Amino acid sequence: MKLLTLALALTLTLTGRDISEAAPHHGHDSAGYVKVAEDGKGFTRNGEPYLIRGANYWQGMNLGADECSGGDRHRLEKEMKLLVNMGINNLRVMASVEGPDDQPVRIRPSLMYAPGEYNEGVFQGLDYLLDAMGRHGLTAVMTLNNYWQWSGGFAQYVAWIDKNQTAYPFPSENEGWDEFTKYSARFYNDTEIYEEAQSMWRKHIETVISRRNTINGKIYRDDPVIMSWQLANEPQEGPLSWFEETSAFIKDLAPNHLVSAGLESKLDQYDFNRAHTPKDIDYTTCHLWVENWEIYDPSNESSIEDAMTYADDYVHSRAQWAAELNKPIVMEEFGMARDAWIKPGDEDFKYDPETPTAHKDRYYKGIFDNIVTLAKKGQFSGSNFWAYAGLGRATDYPNQYGMVWVADPPHEKRGWYSVYDKDTTVKVIEDYNAQLKALEEK
To answer: Which N-terminal residues, if any, form the signal peptide (predicted)?
Structure first.
């Protein structure tokens, strides 16, 4: 142990870091941590208002890995600067990817390729990402699981326990989803496997929260770069007891950090309250997907009007639900395809990086305008658009693991919801972020 301590101290000395700063003791003061405001109407950081000017950047952990593990740190560093230039202050990222790595339509390489077995190269990618975010003044929402198959998620835990299931169901583009969702929900609905599944997952949660960053020496639970630990991406209709017990478990491990549910809040207010009422769920979330929910047709030019009307009602209704719980709300996912209505007979047109984004730009602005209006009243706390592809392109050649790091998960067609560094959408995002920043400074 003494040799390990000496080695860490030497490493930090060589990189110009003070180990007394890099690894603070658990339970130190709250400087730098994002907190819920005392009146429940928003967030603060260092005693000042903190509005979420965010993006989804789920691929950040994998980009932060070394080249042998499929990463690209040079690109990640460039994208950090681009994000800061856009006014971004928060990234929602994955802190969990389950293997095995021979399964299709999922992130490869995985973080945990077998129960309790980790790819250290990928884990160091998460270390590198958090360190880079700290250097650039960003905070992180750390997603600890996934209802969907593209990162392994709930279904992979079920598959590990169900010895007769060699691979969980993979829904095709338009069929098989009912079968898959029932299978995935066994993670917290099947009494026969519940204890084993939760125990296995809690070991992962504890491993991540207690990890010491190999880049800067900070223990994750003590790192103010982490704003929130999120139970899962879009846990569909999970039991109240699961939200209560898991959020309490996380809060006990990381009392300086916030905890969020990751709910899309698509259903009714009862579903919203079930996920967000527990005392250790610090704030509420919602996601908005007008094409996936068959409200918007990208090949129909007039369909944008339906999308705008729906989004307006959605933002206001979810804000009201959050107000009734006296908790902040963040719109942490929303997106729109490129302008397929220009060539309605060409299905691939909406995925082409060169296709314009007139509808997307108008849609983003409409959502942003609603959020700014509500934020002025203390009724909304920001957003994370889906998602930032940065320097990547749907047309890029896959790496050695078959991955193309854009903003669309590997089960979706590349380019569907990606925001590239050269898109006109970037200016819409910049203007919105400037408005939120101005509100913080009032």
So the answer is: 1-22
Instruction: Answer yes or no: are the C-beta atoms of 364 and 428 closer than 8 Å.
Output: yes
Alpha-carbon distances of 130 from 94, 204, 218, 298, 424, rounded to whole Å: 11, 18, 10, 36, 28
Q: Is the pLDDT of residue 369 over 50?
A: yes
CB-CB contact of 253 with 226 (8 Å): no
CA distances (Å), origin 203, targets 207, 230, 235: 6, 15, 19
Residue 252 CB contacts under 8 Å (≥ 6 apart), including other chains: none
CA distance 70 to 113: 15
- Condensed to tens digits (0 to 9), the pLDDT of residues 284-327 reads 999 999 999 999 999 999 999 999 999 999 999 999 999 999 99
pLDDT tens for 153-199 read 999 999 999 876 666 777 776 678 889 999 999 999 999 999 999 99
Domains of the chain by residue range:
34-441
Contact 314, 299 (CB under 8 A): no
274: Cα within 13 Å, side-chain hemisphere? 17
Q: How many CB atoms lie within 10 A of CB 19?
A: 15
pLDDT of residue 78: 98
38 sits in the region (left: phi over 0; alpha: psi -120 to 50; else beta) called: alpha
Structure tokens at 382: 């920001």
Q: Residue 240: what residue type?
A: L
336-354 mean pLDDT: 96
Res. 262: pLDDT tops 50: yes
Residue spans of alpha helices (H) in 1-119: 2-14, 19-22, 60-64, 73-85
